[in-house]
């Protein structure tokens, strides 16, 4: 879209886009922290101080977990991108955090696709979008597999208040949509944003098996890190719960919140609602879960997005031949 514009006009539009991303992300963070109807900011900070969350030991370990969480995400992205172009770890870091910042105010963080693609010359962009799709599908697959197991165990251990008629009706609708979708894909050249299903499948098939295996393993490692981080925060807040029981609830929470499409601004609210609902069966009070969910968001989204803002502000369009 910007390719035919004069150089100065192009730079002006890029500057406006950069500022819009930063302002939008900043407003989202501000609104989430200071205008949260579910958790008063003063009450939140007082609760953290009371539970000694701000001790040097706790802060250091929590930050280490967040660093490793994003280290493996960046490594996963670097591993995928190098199937089309060699990039350094720092370049992968810039693209990952820049994409995170740009995606905060978009539905289901879809802005991450465009943000990462624009770091590459035009000839790479469609493949970059598909690689990002593969990265996200793998992470979602891990969340779904572990989450379904966790939800089954949770249901078997606790008396969940589920309306089976509505639940079964929803399952039937999902199955019906899946069947008709599969039939439709076989009968026509269905396209998603200009990508035919045939092309997407062909692209995935031609990636080396080593890439698929590595991507899935890195997704599992990431899941293990941020789920353990949630468990560690439970321990900090004095919740007496073993790791197995906590993981059943944590995996169920991530699964339930991930299957609901939403704007990033509502994503935290959905996760928080799922967490409060599930952990109430374990006798854990709402304030503790709200505080932990907010801290998880601060550590794994807000903090990386601050660094991502720097990368967004320093972004330069790639050369035509890169």
TrEMBL record:
Keywords: Cell membrane, Membrane, Transmembrane, Transmembrane helix. It is found in: Cell membrane. The keyword Transmembrane applies. InterPro entries: L-PG_synthase/AglD. It is a multi-pass membrane protein. Its main location: membrane. The chain crosses the membrane at residues 12-30, 54-72, 129-155, 167-185, 215-234, 254-282. Pfam families: LPG_synthase_TM (PF03706). One of its GO terms (cellular component) is plasma membrane. This is Lysylphosphatidylglycerol synthase TM region. The lineage of its organism: Bacteria, Pseudomonadati, Bacteroidota, Flavobacteriia, Flavobacteriales.
